Automatic annotation (TrEMBL):
UniProt-recorded name of the protein: Uncharacterized protein
One annotated GO molecular function: nucleic acid binding
Source organism per UniProt: Paenibacillus alvei
Domain of life: Bacteria
InterPro entries: Restrct_endonuc-II-like (IPR011335), tRNA_endonuc-like_dom_sf (IPR011856)
């Protein structure tokens, strides 16, 4: 997944999405597997 994020077109799409949310005053970020603790993932899944 991380390698996929580095592709130019994927980065362009993320920039479009970031701008979309920015204009709506909503913080937005990309999170990859290495950046989030497994416990947090489980907690989020329980919430959803």
């Amino acid at each position: 997944m991380k390698d996929k994020l580095l592709e130019e077109r994927v980065l362009e799409k993320f920039e479009i999405e970031r701008e979309y949310w920015k204009r709506r005053s909503i913080n937005w970020a990309t999170v990859i597997e290495e950046e989030i603790h497994k416990t947090m993932v489980r907690n989020i899944k329980l919430y959803l």
